[in-house]
Amino acid sequence: MSKKKQQEFVKEITPMEEDFSQWYTDVILKTDLVDYAPVKGCMVIKPYGYGIWEGIQRVMDRRFKETGHKNAYFPLLIPESYLKKEADHFEGFAPEVLWVTHGGNEKLAERLFIRPTSETIICSMYSKWVQSYRDLPVLINQWCNVVRWEKTTRPFLRTAEFLWQEGHTVHATPEEAQEETMQMLEVYRQVAEDELAMPVLLGQKSDKEKFAGADRTYTMEAMMHDGKALQAGTSHNLGQHFSKMFDIKYLDKDGELKFGWSTSWGTSTRLIGGIIMTHGDNRGLVMPPRVAPTQVVIVPIASHKEGVLDKAYEIKKQLQNDFRLELDNRENYSPGWKFNEWEMKGVPVRLEIGPKDIEQNQVTLFRRDKLEKFTASMDNLNETIANLLDDIHMTMFNNALKNREEKTSITTDYEEFKTLMVEKPGFVKTMWCGSRACEDKMKEDTNATIRCMPFDQTPVGDKCMMCGGEAKHVVYVAKAY
RNA sequence: CUGGGUAUAGCGCAGCUUGGUAGCGCGCUUGAAUGGGGUUCAAGAGGUCGCAGGUUCAAAUCCUGUUACCCAGACCA
Q: Which of A63, A92, A108, A263 is the most buried (most CB within 10 A)?
């Protein structure tokens, strides 16, 4: 494509180097992922955006089932008294809870709140269901919406209402609960890296950053194109806080009545924001093939000529059982227009079929990640495309990993750190003494936060970067969404 | 919650300073040609100017209030 043409095309999307926020907004609106809704902070997820969510659900739910979990559904509305049972939890969520006060014209005897998360209602039900050690473990997940009345919202990254999954389990021992917490973090890692091609750092949250009411919170953190980190999923070991508050007790083998040990873990439509900001470029979206709503788009060329459309349909029939695909037979758009549109929408593979291809028993393929065009034989087409999609996944993952590595610095010098946060935003791997004071100071000075204490604790120094005291933890620090 | 900005056709905008018939581009509809990287021509449709008051013979335009959204912070997935 000529430079001029490319510039004309790209003018619809603000270049990310110029204004990353605007780039993000342009992309999500112009690719038909979402539309703004009439209520503040709420978004409509349009079919193409929802298709991504369905893809995520598909690959994640499969792993939930494989690890022994079942889906259920709990109510949207929860009585006010439930929220108050766990003090830390209440303190954490109360400021952003949305209240229901009236039924019709009548004021409710007890206010209800719309779930910002479901620990309270689910644990209260578990206390009825759990009687014996034979009832454990309870391994339940739910796919649902939650509402958090946030001050500032951005489509996918932070909306007042969002879709997510929340797993809630109860176990007989702390060891089992810990094992479950780590297992689900690993499931999340697999989804992020093996399905979304989005590399993540795994680790534990500091006390300051952990979930309200958890003993320990583990997280996966991804790096976006603008150098900001995205918390992409969390897994919490809730200890006995909730089982004690909600009275989840079981009679053990030894005849003693004991409190259960619980976990919860969640990922949300925020992952879609992560996909956009991990892989997207100045031409728009780049969809990871394994969750792409459309993996292959067939664009017939000169479709009015005899045999072209027939061949396109024939290819569609041949491929449609193996791939999510679309045949773009719209009459009123030129091929060039269609190319640009599907590239903007990030469809991994475009298949062009025209008179010249038919003559030579070939198709023309285009891969979105590398913007490369080439021809392939009509024979073994399914296999060719399957391999191509795998290669695209790998290439995307490696690019994202390379990007993260380029955006990761190591330092234990606080002045250098402050400069880095301004001049080279990204992760900084450093040492921390473990005190809240140092954590707060860093946030105040730079707006960066400790994203996690990675599992690999090989030291990169022996003194805390902030106070110079004895270092206790290796940490990754970054500004975050 | 703090600071800044915006609201006029589906989308992007002009018009407002200085009140007087509602404009442009894209998109949309119809027809024809075109078709391997955002095609071309012709003819059309479409808006109580965010909402509520006020001033005026007359308000998109001036005044008051209000709501929503966007951006940047602080807070959170």
A: A263
CA atoms A46, A51, A54, A59: torsion sign: negative
**Alpha carbons A265 and A191: distance in angstroms, whole number:** 14
Q: State the nucleotide closest to A363 in CA–C1' terms.
A: B36
Q: What is the pLDDT of residue A8?
A: 45
Nucleotide lying nearest to A338, CA to C1' measure: B38
How far does the CA of A323 sit from the C1' of B68, in Å? 42
Give, in Å, how far the C1' of B53 lies from the CA of A36. Answer: 29
Closest CA to A24 of A224, A160, A161: A224
* A3 in any annotated domain: no
**Over the stretch A122-179, which tens digit does the pLDDT of each residue have?**
999 999 999 999 999 999 999 999 998 888 888 899 888 899 999 999 999 999 999 9
Q: Is A393 contained in some domain?
A: no
Instruction: Give the CA-to-C1' distance from A78 to B62 in angstroms.
Output: 51
Q: Are A15 and A80 contained in the same domain?
A: yes
Is A194 domain-assigned? Answer: yes
Domain-located, residue A288: no
**What is the C-alpha separation between A166 and A163, in angstroms, rounded?**
10
Residues of chain A with pLDDT under 70: 1-11
pLDDT confidence of residue A103: 82
Nearest nucleotide (C1') to the CA of residue A8?
B38
How many residues are there in chain A? Answer: 481
CA of A150 to C1' of B77 (A): 11
Structural domain harbouring A156: 11-279
A33-58 pLDDT tens trace: 988 877 778 888 999 999 999 999 99
Chain B positions with an atom below 7 A of a protein C-beta are: 1, 28-29, 34-39, 68-77
A207 and A346 both lie in a single domain: no
Nucleotide nearest to A266 (CA to C1'): B77
- Through-space separation of residue A147 CA and nucleotide B73 C1' in angstroms: 23
The pLDDT of residue A11 is 55
CA atoms within 13 A on the CB side of A430: 31
**Are A357 and A424 within one domain?**
no
> What CATH number is associated with residue A378?
3.40.50.800
